[in-house]
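We read letters as residues; the integers encode the fold. Take this protein.
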Amino acid sequence: MNNRVVITGIGVISPIGIGKDNFWKALVAGKSGVDYITRFDTTDYATKIAAEVKDFDPVNYIDKKEAKRMDRYTQFAVAASRLAIDDAKINTDEIDNERFGVIFGSGIGGIETFEEQKEKLINKGPKRISPFFIPMMIGNMAAGQIAIAFNAKGPNETVVTACASSTNAIGDAFKVLQRGDADILITGGSEASITPIALAGFSSMKALSTNNDNPQKASRPFDKDRDGFVMGEGSGVLILETLEHALNRGAKIYAEVAGYGSTCDANHITTPLEDGSGAKRAMELAIKDAKVDKSKINYINAHGTSTYYNDKFETLAIKNLFEESLYNIKISSTKSMTGHLLGAAGGVEAIATTLAIKNGIIPPTINLVNQDEECDLNYVPNTAIKEEVNYALSNSLGFGGHNATVLFKKYE
């Protein structure tokens, strides 16, 4: 069996907007979600900025008692899933729940809960640890809680491949539907790791921007003056369905998922291969899987983290793969606006890619003022452009050498 797979619902909780319409409006306008961290005191930190989700109240989406038993990353996941289910107009009482599943990604899981409970252990002793500590903290609980919320009894899995987690989850969900093992899957990812220990850890690696004087200018992929990534948080959720199932229930269709590629550099825990060959092969495999000529691809949502090595080597991967058809390709890094959502990045960026296809608008890479000569492609600097997008790639690259690419195309 080789089912066609389509996107019928979108849900997003992001630093630049909650809900697909608010998210897309901010993306096209080039709005930055980066500002000073408000969730804890950053006095002793080299980095004092991040892209926090503002105005999020879990009780708008989740029963108050249940929300208290969820880490923030799970709250984001369930909330974004509810938005996506509503957008897809799925009545969970009218579908085959045993063919309705969840394949979800998170790079870190419930780190906020871990930190809070660790403080309790130190200051108040072991008897004060919450009985919900473990089920709130573990990385698979977003997928589990989504399934409980929507009675999804089909395949249920969690993908943990660092910053490639969501894109791997979407690719895996695509394959499950393609081979006929489910009718509908909730997929994407969630992350809520703007916490003291995570900020300290990334700071110790010298991975984060310290452009504290200009928060909204700090995330600057492909710019010569970039000095590291900016942490973000949130959740991006897609409803994927077999085309047959979507048509039978009269669903609206945003775009089609057509190809998926996944590779590993097998090289270094944090630094990509210098020739970009791991990322190149992931894109190559996605294109081969979709059975499309690479010259037809005209948009890439890049991983584009605003770190020196990622931007340089991802650019090289794109150049080495596309060669003579490079002139046809527009590239943007929406992390310039959302910050880096780590394990949730691929979900949010898949949504950006899908909406670019649906609306015929390519979102910009903001803060691209002094373009790095080693990054010499068309990154759609600062202003969105109107252009029909027929075939697009979304790239995610993660610590551990993980590379994942999903190919989306206009539905016809």
